[in-house]
Amino acid sequence: MDKNIVNLFEKYLNNRCSDEELETVLTFIKAGTFLDEWNHVLTLDAASLLENENDIPIRSEILKLQTHHRLINSMNAHEKSQTRKTFKITGKWIPIAAAASVLIFFGWWFYTTSDSYSDQITYHNDIAPGKSGARLRLSSGKVISLDGSKTGLVVRNQQLSYNDGTELEPAGTAAAEKTYTAWTDNGNMYMLTLSDGTQVWLNAGSQLDFPAKFTGLRRQVRLKGEAFFKVTKNKSMPFIVESKGQRVEVLGTAFNINSYPDEQATKTTLVEGSISISSDDSKFTLKPGQQAVLNPTGSLIVSNADTTLAAAWKNNKFIFENNDIQSVMRMIQRWYNVEVIYTTPPPDVTFGGKISRFENVSAVLRVLERTGGVHFKTEGKKIYVFK
């Protein structure tokens, strides 16, 4: 992604382009080039709007998004007048047109949901969002349910306690243990502080295997699912995370790994510091703002990425940027602990926008339905998806 082009498009959205820059933007639009940059900027523009909907005149901002959509339509009309033929959006412009339409609907939903539209989509039952909670298995086989009202678990000085200092197990328990397994069910998330001070946030449906105390030449853990790591620096003892098909080695840094079994690719996104990542046939060193994607063939592909998107779940948000319906519903399935059933082939529609993970599921589904491309029905803990 070209950062200079992104900056140019952002200037356009904020009405700060010179005449020459405006001419360049219009040239790009007519040529249908830099589509990734357009998708990125338009989606983040809408996400910023949604995040601050209580602080700005939302109607005028929605009109701005509509202007982007009208721009595309005006290009169609101009082309039609030139050729005197029926004009259709070319294939390469479909993603941008779709993105603009989706963003308009997101803004429109937030404007209308407090009024008459809020009652048009009803659900016979609602589903509460996920919450804090996890379980911990000791090497003896004993399983402890971790208190969801606490902010996290701490392994320190041969003792297990919660972040507020409340003792979980008697002093010396950690000394008698060799390994722990902490896991979250769907509908739960939890924070762990390991014996070296490293902090780990486990997303829903995830598991971390780790030692009671790090010894030897390395600090090694194993992840299934998704977690955000903030690793304590120790140059003499690298921190290693093994996950599906890959190995990440760091000295001290912050990064996110998404390695759910039902996701085709494993994604590792670096927020700060530096990490070395390797698979069976690839090895790279990532810089902040880069993401490594491990595809099903075992190859790693490195590219620039928005770290805000990768760590959104940790900050209790859903942020979608050109996500298809199946990837969105997998997020919903894990966080709300529901079963998702497609009664028709999955709709071919993508989504962009932001909403709190503390909302009931109906609020999220309403946002998605406003695109007009998908509908839902809830029955108990099941969500039916259809066109």
SSE arrangement:
Layout: H1 3-13, H2 19-31, H3 35-51, H4 58-83, H5 94-112, E1 131-132, E2 134-138, E3 143-146, E4 153-156, E5 159-162, H6 173-176, E6 179-183, E7 188-193, E8 199-202, E9 207-211, E10 219-230, E11 239-243, E12 246-250, E13 254-259, E14 266-272, E15 275-278, E16 283-286, E17 290-294, E18 300-304, H7 307-310, E19 317-324, H8 325-336, E20 339-342, E21 350-356, H9 361-369, E22 375-379, E23 382-386
Parallel strand pairs: 1-7, 4-7, 10-11, 20-23
Antiparallel strand pairs: 2-3, 2-6, 4-5, 6-9, 7-8, 8-10, 9-10, 10-13, 11-12, 12-15, 13-14, 14-17, 15-16, 17-18, 19-21, 22-23
General description of the model:
The protein is an alpha+beta fold and 387 residues long. The protein has 3 domains: 3-119; 131-310, Sandwich (Jelly Rolls); 316-386, Phage tail protein beta-alpha-beta fold, CATH 3.55.50.30. It is built from 9 helices and 23 strands. The strands form 3 sheets. It has an 18-stranded mixed beta sheet that branches. Strands 20-23-22 form a 3-stranded mixed beta sheet, covered by helices on one side. It has a two-stranded antiparallel ribbon with strand order 19-21. A hairpin with a 2-residue loop joins strand 4 and strand 5. Helix 1 packs across helix 3 and helix 3 (35-51) packs parallel to helix 5 (94-112). The longest helix is centred in the first third of the chain and has 26 residues, at 58-83.
